[in-house]
């Protein structure tokens, strides 16, 4: 447990670390989702392309939106963007910095999905099997156009009776997978080069502005957190006073209406009476009914002055 | 647990140790990636070479750049390189040290990938199956095939289910031959890398050890200084935010008291700690106004000037007259922490 607490504390140490952690978890989740998903190509002429490209592009959009939703900073940024100017002027560089940092983190999981899809090859094979040139492959060269289209559409389905031991099917499937993997590696290479150039070249332009934007975006985040903590603490105290006041007023009402002799030792209430004068079932029931039907007003100004 | 905490703290202690950890993880990740990756030779004449060499060389390049991208020192290096001189001189040997140390760590994962690929043999088999010496290993004269046709047949050697040239050359023979060459290359590569690493480590102390110690010290210093600066800024932002919010709540409750023309509350000498913590906001209307004002009109990023505390804890001259005694005392106490 100590181990987890330490790792948790490390990631909690600032909100950037939390967001990096969420980003990594989402990327792992997208890989897991892909391996669990049972890809099943329809093997029909026009459905293949729709299915293949759909599986390749629709989950990334969902993952991107998840990445934006799970990131607390996106709400902070929106609030900062939309707030009226008031006494504090708005700095567009800070908003731009926050926006770019949020977008970069949200893009990681979709990109991981697309690359895993391409390296696996099933999606592209399903989508583009009908677009292969049949002249390249011996088994498809001498058949009519319609028949060739249907056979090509069945290439992704290994278990189809027509295609089970067809060597041309295997050749086409290898060819498509090779292209898919090459595309996957190329995209990964381009993205890594872009990330490398961005990290290398960023300090060369406007480093001072960047430091300022980063500091103030951090500040806005911290300020929002502290404001929420202050409000929480305030509301806890407010509620405490409000409820105390309610119990006291109930206690007074019960004293007024009941004719029981004052119990011995009541005068010696030196220490705080935790039962607050409510000591039997009827009184408790009355208190609970009052709490539901007539909640006390949200005003402890009299109580606070005591 | 203590042991684990110590290891964790040691790895975190500076960027170099942290990078050693990342470097090890990336090396393991590269072997895992290779075994997870489904190698799929196209078995077509020109595609084989491109695919095989691509899988051999492109992922190591990606891993090398990833090693740089994950290293926070790269932006530190670029920053140190590009900063204006100001009052602190720049030492190119420090920059060189940082760059070399980053490059050395980034080379480990690619080297692991290349070694594993060569030792496994599939890439070289796929890339060079069309260059197998048929004359020595098979029957070149058996079937009269054109060059192009022979290349097409040979290209299918890695694909057992597609291969139809058993009479030309047995696929097992060709595959064994190519794998043998690939593994020999792999072991030579491993030997070369370890010899280079050994030479770099053992010869360096013989030359320029003093300069090396200096560069290493100052590069660690720059790293630590930057971390401390970031921590100090974060600490400052936290204190700034606390005081800003405190002043906001005080300002709110003062405004409301003034607006309602209530008699100013007499400062209760023994006001409980809870009353102070309520920050002067004691009913729903006031709280709603505070929340609305927080959104509509955020306070300026400008804290009121601190009051100089005198002997009895009360603020002296120069205090803005609008603040009544109780919050003033609070303000002084608060500032003493900032």
TrEMBL record, chain A:
Q: Which family does it belong to?
A: Belongs to the CALHM family.
Q: Does the keyword Ion transport apply?
A: yes
Q: Which GO terms describe its biological process?
A: ATP export
- A single Pfam family it belongs to is Ca_hom_mod
Subcellular location per the Swiss-Prot or TrEMBL entry: Membrane
Sorted alphabetically, which keywords does the UniProt record give? Ion channel, Ion transport, Membrane, Transmembrane, Transmembrane helix, Transport
Give TM segment ranges.
Answer: 49-71, 92-115, 182-201
What is the designated name of this protein? CAHM3 protein
CC annotations in GO: plasma membrane
Its record classes its membrane topology as: Multi-pass membrane protein
TrEMBL record, chain B:
| Membrane topology according to the record | Multi-pass membrane protein
- Asked if the record carries the keyword Cell cycle, the reply is no
Q: Which Pfam families match?
A: Ca_hom_mod (PF14798)
Q: Where in the cell is it found?
A: Membrane
> Which GO MF terms are attached to this record?
monoatomic cation channel activity
GO annotation, biological process? ATP export
Q: Name one GO cellular component term.
A: plasma membrane
- The organism's place on the tree of life at top rank: Eukaryota
Chief location category: membrane
Q: Which UniProt keywords apply?
A: Ion channel, Ion transport, Membrane, Transmembrane, Transmembrane helix, Transport
- Residue stretches spanning the membrane: 21-37, 49-70, 184-203
| PANTHER family membership | CALCIUM HOMEOSTASIS MODULATOR PROTEIN, CALCIUM HOMEOSTASIS MODULATOR PROTEIN 1
Sequence similarity? Belongs to the CALHM family.
The entry's protein name is CAHM1 protein
Per the UniProt record, the source organism is Herpetotheres cachinnans
Organism taxonomic ancestry: Eukaryota, Metazoa, Chordata, Craniata, Vertebrata
Q: Coding gene?
A: Calhm1
């Amino acid at each position: 447990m100590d181990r987890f607490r330490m790792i948790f504390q490390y990631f909690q140490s600032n909100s950037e670390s939390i967001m990096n952690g969420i980003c990594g978890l989402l990327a792992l989740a997208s890989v897991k989702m892909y391996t669990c998903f049972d890809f099943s190509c329809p093997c029909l002429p026009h459905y293949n392309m729709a299915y293949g490209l759909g599986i390749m592009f629709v989950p990334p959009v969902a993952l991107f939106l998840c990445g934006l939703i799970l990131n607390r900073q996106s709400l902070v940024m929106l609030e900062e963007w939309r707030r009226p100017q008031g006494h504090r002027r708005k700095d567009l560089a800070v908003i731009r910095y926050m926006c770019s940092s949020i977008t970069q983190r949200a893009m990681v999981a979709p990109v991981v999905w697309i690359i895993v899809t391409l390296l696996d090859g099933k999606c592209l094979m399903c989508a583009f099997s009908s677009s292969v040139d049949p002249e390249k492959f011996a088994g498809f060269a001498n058949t009519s156009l319609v028949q060739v289209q249907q056979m090509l559409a069945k290439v992704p389905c290994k278990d189809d009776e027509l295609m089970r031991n067809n060597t041309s099917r295997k050749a086409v499937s290898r060819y498509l997978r090779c292209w898919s993997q090459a595309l996957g590696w190329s995209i990964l290479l381009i993205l890594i080069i872009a990330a490398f150039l961005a990290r290398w070249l960023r300090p060369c332009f406007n480093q001072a502005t960047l430091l300022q934007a980063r500091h103030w975006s951090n500040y806005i985040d911290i300020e929002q957190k502290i404001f929420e903590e202050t409000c929480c603490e305030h509301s806890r105290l407010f509620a405490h006073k409000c409820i105390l006041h309610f119990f006291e007023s109930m206690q007074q009402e019960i004293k007024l209406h009941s004719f029981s002799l004052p119990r011995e030792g009541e005068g010696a209430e030196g220490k705080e009476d935790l039962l607050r004068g409510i000591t039997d079932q009827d009184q408790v029931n009355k208190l609970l009914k009052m709490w539901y039907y007539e909640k006390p007003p949200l005003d402890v100004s009299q109580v606070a002055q005591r | 647990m203590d042991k684990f905490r110590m290891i964790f703290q040691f790895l975190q202690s500076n960027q170099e140790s942290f990078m050693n950890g990342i470097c090890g993880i990336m090396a393991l990740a590269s072997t895992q990636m290779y075994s997870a990756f489904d190698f799929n030779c196209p078995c077509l004449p020109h595609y084989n070479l491109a695919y095989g060499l691509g899988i051999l060389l492109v992922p190591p390049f990606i891993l090398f750049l990833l090693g740089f991208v994950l290293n926070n020192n790269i932006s530190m290096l670029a920053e140190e390189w590009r900063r204006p001189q100001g009052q602190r001189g720049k030492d190119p040997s420090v920059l060189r040290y940082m760059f070399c140390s980053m490059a050395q760590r980034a080379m480990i994962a690619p080297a692991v990938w290349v070694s594993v690929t060569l030792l496994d043999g599939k890439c070289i088999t796929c890339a060079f199956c069309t260059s197998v010496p048929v004359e020595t290993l098979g029957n070149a004269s058996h079937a009269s095939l054109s060059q192009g046709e022979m290349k097409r047949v040979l290209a299918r050697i890695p694909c057992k289910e597609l291969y139809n040239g058993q009479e030309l050359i047995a696929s097992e023979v060709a595959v064994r031959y190519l794998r043998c060459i690939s593994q020999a290359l792999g072991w030579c590569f491993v030997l070369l890398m370890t010899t280079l690493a050994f030479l770099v480590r053992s010869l360096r102390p013989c030359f320029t050890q003093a300069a090396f110690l200096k560069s290493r010290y100052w590069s660690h210093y720059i790293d630590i200084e930057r971390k401390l600066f970031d921590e100090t800024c974060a600490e400052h932002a936290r204190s700034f935010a606390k005081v800003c919010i405190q002043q906001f709540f005080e300002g709110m409750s003062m405004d409301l008291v003034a607006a309602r023309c209530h008699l100013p509350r007499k400062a209760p000498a023994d006001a409980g700690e809870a009353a102070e913590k309520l920050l002067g906001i004691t009913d729903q209307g006031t709280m709603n106004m505070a929340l609305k004002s927080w959104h509509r009109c955020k306070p300026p990023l400008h804290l009121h000037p601190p009051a100089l505390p005198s002997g009895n804890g009360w603020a002296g001259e120069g205090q803005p007259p609008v603040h009544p005694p109780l919050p003033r005392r609070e303000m002084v106490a608060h500032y003493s922490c900032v």
